[in-house]
Automatic annotation (TrEMBL):
Gene giving rise to this polypeptide: nasT
Modified residues (4-aspartylphosphate): 93
Signal peptide start and end residues: none
Organism placement in taxonomy: Bacteria, Bacillati, Actinomycetota, Actinomycetes, Micromonosporales
Gene3D superfamilies for the chain: 3.40.50.2300, Winged helix-like DNA-binding domain superfamily/Winged helix DNA-binding domain
Domain ANTAR: 163-224
Source species of the chain: Paractinoplanes durhamensis
Protein name per its UniProtKB record: Transcriptional regulator
Amino acid sequence: MSFRQPTHYDWGGDTHIPGCRDFGSVGGRGSVADTQAGADRKRVLIAEDEALIRLDLAEMLVEEGYDVVGEAGDGETAVRLAEDLRPDLVILDIKMPIMDGLAAAERIAGGRIAPVVILTAFSQRDLVERARAAGAMAYLVKPFQKSDLVPAIEIALSRYSEIAALESEVAGLTDRLETRKSVERAKGELMTKYQMTEPQAFKWIQRTAMDHRMTMREVADRILAEGQEAGGAQATTP
């Protein structure tokens, strides 16, 4: 069985997001309207020990259509509020008293409470790697602009939903990791061949799996196999 060429997306889009870096390939710049159209306003928790930065961030979020449901000046309070409020997203500064943002991210992401966006500085590359290991989905580099905020949030929400979907499909840790690897490679194949963004590629795999009553791992493996067959045929063509 060969899957038909994807045709139900609006291809293309900007793949560069100034001021925002995700922990993997970036799917493209979206908008709050794209993410939130027809849905409830996303609820965001902010943790930043500098009051002025926290205030500016809260104002940006409200202006962009998000609800700020809680604010914290340290990581320990952030974890407690996240557990109590169950927000859709948590934004954490790395440098905070009592409990730093990395430890808080590990608690929040590890508990599957919400996706995490980390606030960092250009000189903290080693901390960014630790943030990724702690489970953060994306990060914002200080000083950041309002135009950087929405893409970072969309990346975090998209990646978090992907992981949740894959984990609901596969119970075992080893199988889960292998499934994620296959899906990531298949997404890359679709992005290269059909100029999809990363979220579009994942949604296509997810929808195709549902339509064909297959797992996402099976769809991903089929995409990769067809790509190898096509590459082999081109290589042998005189």
